[in-house]
Amino acid sequence: MNQIEHHVRIGQIKTADAGEVLKTVLGSCVGIALIWRRHGKFALAHCLLPEPLAAERTQEARYVTQAIPRMLEILGVSKEDISELEAIVAGGGQMMDVEKPYVKYIVGTENLRVAKQILETLKIKIIAFEPGGEQGTKMRLDTSTGDFTVERIPRAA
Q1: Considering the entire predicted model, what is its pTM?
Q2: Which is more confidently placed, 2 or 125?
Q3: Which CATH number applies to 5-138: 3.90.1150.10, 3.30.70.2740, 3.30.1330.200, 3.40.50.720?
Q4: What is the 3-state secondary structure of 83-152?
């Protein structure tokens, strides 16, 4: 039996039912998965930047600061349910030359820092934190088991 696979693209949040797969490919973007095993609910966000520069509000996952609360909303998580959640954070690779004078911050590193900070503030248990280093990352979550894989993608020369 083939599993239904959902590819999560930049700025998207996708959910899946048990028996499906959520997957994404990341560079400096960060992937954040939330797992709610008791209810069989799973979500994956593909975040481009840590936070908006202005008061821009989106309903998707463009920014880490907006994606995590939106995922909780989509999954129907209440404050009482937070302790049941598990999170996986991956990606955030250093994909650009950071020695350039126009680089304000290292996007991937900042994406990871903000994701971890928000999850810790909300007291969501992080079961895997997989920084991309200087490589890309493939992230895959099998919702039938809750198992996940994080695979490195070597940088092109």
Answers
A1: 0.90
A2: 125
A3: 3.30.1330.200
A4: HHCEEEEEECCCCCCCCCCCCCCCHHHHHHHHHHHHHHHCCCEEEEEEECCCCEEEEEEECCCCEEEEEE
